[in-house]
Amino acid sequence: MRFLTADYIYPLYTDPIEKGVIQVSSEGEVLSVLKNRKEMPKEKLEVYKGILCPGFVNAHCHLELSHLKAPVEVGKGFLNFLSVVKKRNSFNQDEILSAIDLAEQQMLKNGIVGVGDICNSGDTISQKKRGNLQYYNFIEVFGVREESANQIMNRAKELQCKFKNSGLQSTITPHAPYSVSEKLMQEIKKIFDKKNQVLTIHMQESDLENQLFENKKGPFLTWLQGINASSLIWTRRNKSIDFIKELKGAKLLFVHNTFAKKEDVSSNYYYCTCPKSNLHIENQLPDYDNFDVEKLCVGTDSLASNNSLSILEELQIIKQNSCFDLNTLLKIASKNGAEALGFEQLGTFEKGKNPGVNLISDFSKIEVIV
Ligand SMILES: [Zn+2]
Predict the structure, then answer these.
(1) What is the pLDDT of residue 72?
(2) Model pTM?
(3) Which of 89, 138, 187, 307 is the least buried, fewest Cβ under 10 Å from its Cβ?
(4) Mean pLDDT over all residues of the chain?
(5) How far apart are CA 23 and CA 26, in angstroms?
(6) What does CATH list as the number for 56-346?
(7) Where is pLDDT greater, at 62 or 196?
């Protein structure tokens, strides 16, 4: 049993508490939150300088891309970034697996306890089986031609079986509104379980996406026509968010939203921002005033577009570009992501949870306490 106290504790389900105390079991379960450290005999307390908050939830990552180091050039745009990801298979399996292991260690060290992770392969399965972190695995599908929908779904289901046979949950999810045909979206909807699942989708990461749907022109249109995409993608969807009708009733987590306008955003859904990745690829950030702060989450994206997997570093960028106070920033980092991904044990210091405890000093240094 431990009694942890600091200048402030941020339970996140309630207001910050000056010199409060969190009582945790040896397994890390929160047993109680006390308002005043004076209620406790001094010798029982572990006293820290700084603030204590729950472990972070990285709401968007691609752990399997950890071997693709982000290129030095910044702001080259999304289509250029795709060419980096295409190199993913020109590495041997040992390089891929050791990069995954190092990336996970980095997340642990940076106080991350849960991850929403995009999977196109089974490369991360052996790492995830170790149970170091809690993962929500999204098996991502994309396919722009109607006729290939069944084949793509069959492949995704095979991958889902691999996860299942290793005791890991996974959900089949669409990549982006421009990269998934209507037929493929229907197939995803068919197997979606409303009760306990969330879908995630890359959304308005590039302004070219808005150009495609709203003006039916631009480099995305040229690119899609060049790969024989079904024109229904851009003729029947007149905005990025129009695909939502095709997935009616689904709990959704939109990722990036860099070019989302206020009218595109709804309090019915969760939104994840990946600021460092956005700056790297597009040199642009979302307008943080557009979002409901109870529904905003944060992710690192992958090491293919980021030089670290640190939620604290992402928060520093959000802080510089918004008016959010510290409590709001920490909710974005922990509580909201846990809610979006259904991580019931994580996100706040509520009694009975096992959320991990991070110590932050000066908003620049992080240490994992529990
Ligand atoms: Zn992504």
Answers:
(1) 59
(2) 0.97
(3) 89
(4) 95
(5) 10
(6) 3.20.20.140
(7) 62
Domain residue spans of the chain: 1-54+348-370, 56-346
List the CATH code of the domain at 1-54+348-370.
2.30.40.10
Residue-wise pLDDT for 300-310, tens only, equals 999 999 999 99
pLDDT digits (tens, 9 = 90+) for 167-187: 999 999 999 999 999 999 999
Q: Where are the alpha helices (DSSP H) in the chain?
A: 78-85, 93-109, 125-129, 149-165, 182-190, 207-210, 219-226, 232-235, 275-281, 311-320, 326-330, 336-341
Ligand 1 center to residue 81 CA distance, Å? Answer: 11
Sign of the dihedral defined by the CA atoms of residues 288, 292, 294, 296, in that order: negative
d(CA 5, ligand 1 centre) in Å: 37
SS3 358: strand
- Do 56-346 and 1-54+348-370 have the same topology in CATH? no
For position 315, what pLDDT does the model report?
Answer: 98
| Ligand 1 centroid distance, CA of 60 (Å) | 6
Q: How far is the CA of 28 from the centre of ligand 1 (A)?
A: 31
CA of 231 to the centre of ligand 1 (A): 24
Distance (angstroms) between ligand 1 centre and the Cα of 213 equals: 20
Sheet order of strands, 365-368 included = 17-18, 8-9, 51-54, 357-361, 365-368
Q: What is the structure's pLDDT at 194?
A: 74
